[in-house]
Amino acid sequence: MIKKALVLSLLLFIGINTASYAQDGYGFEVIAEVEATPVKNQYASSTCWSFTTSSFIESEMLRLGKEEIDLSEMFVVRNTYSEKALRYVRLHGKLNFAGGGALSDVMHIYATYGAVPNEVYPGLLIGEANHRHGEMDEVLSAIVNAVIKNKNKKLSPVWHNAFLGALDAYLGEYPETFKYKGKKYTPKSFADDVVGINPNDYVELTSFTHHPYYSTFPIEVPDNWRFGHSYNLPLDELIDVLDNALKEGYSASWAADVSEDGFSYKNGLAIVPEQDIDEMTAEEKENAFNNPVKQKRITAELRQTAYDNYQTTDDHAMHITGMAKASNGDTYYLVKNSWGTDNTTKGYLYASLSYMQYKTLSIYVHKDAIPEKIRKKLNL
């Protein structure tokens, strides 16, 4: 996702938050939950998309009865940057070039290059205990822009090798082969023999009115650099897919906007109160984050307007692993974040149904998680 999420995560690391309340009165009761691996920390990097769908794949492995594995997010980031550089140069720089990405990028890399365990390719910069990509992102951007602007009237045959050399320097040399539990693998053989999921079994779904329902289109956001297509559903059917998935033991990757005043990582809440938070008094805000309040009714027209006005952008991705009921009976979704575990819910948050309806860009799920009647409409 884009830089806004990176800024938000950096603010959290230095202890700044717009709300300082707890959700004591919500009394969440989890009614469906999918097994998930431990929460990780993307730290100062724009790589939530990689952490999210990598976590999703890890849960898929657990669902299929496979061993718990910590997959390397930076292996995905490295290969994505490599492909993005080629496309950026071929498009004369007319493409978003940054650390962000889309949910489906991870499965694309898995299908094309394979996967490796995090212990084999942690991708940490020398001397750093956490991911800090500010310098790397700027250096990589400078390389591709220099290639485009060069005065030789043609590209050298080695510019991409130079780019890969920079990735080696920052993330580590590419793991052509490696050993895991005493056995030798390539990334492809590890994906086939150990991870063992079929990338063709997964689809991305969205809901917008500027394209026909039940068609596919590339969501028009900067980080969709591959122009990956999503299936377009009516809003109620998109939520039906998510609910069915969680009830049937499937999880979902979630691309969303977290710029709303109702999104509070510290408190583990994402809400859309009927009364806008920026119009509330301090006491009303405290109540909203302490006790369930009436949520805004979200329509397809409302979410479309927010998207068209850049109020809903591709600034973060997270992993939806469950459903819960608040004390007032409202539905909430249990969401695994990638900002560490220093909030009140140990790295998770509860997102209201209204928030899910309003601020979702897309979800990424197994085809079998989609109700049969909706699958038929999509010809899946």
How would you concisely characterize the structure shown here?
By secondary structure, the chain is of the alpha+beta class.
Could you give me the name of the CATH homologous superfamily?
Cysteine proteinases
User: Could you say what the CATH topology is called?
Assistant: Cathepsin B, Chain A
Average pLDDT confidence is: 94
Just name the CATH architecture: Alpha-Beta Complex
Overall outline: globular
Radius of gyration: 21 Å
Q: Sheet with the most strands?
A: 11 strands, mixed
Low-confidence stretches: 7-21
The arrangement of helices and strands along the chain is HEHHHHHEEHEEEHEEEHHEEEHEH
Q: What is the CATH class designation? A: Alpha Beta
Report on the architecture of this protein.
The structure is a single chain. The chain is α+β, with helices and mostly antiparallel strands. It has one domain: Alpha-Beta Complex (Cathepsin B, Chain A), CATH 3.90.70.10. Helices cover 37% and strands 16% of the residues. It has twelve helices and 13 strands. Strands 1, 4, 5, 6, 7, 8, 9, 10, 11, 12 and 13 form an eleven-stranded mixed β-sheet that branches. Strands 2-3 form a two-stranded antiparallel sheet. A hairpin with a 5-residue loop joins strand 10 and strand 11 (331-336). Residues 7-21 have low confidence and may be disordered.
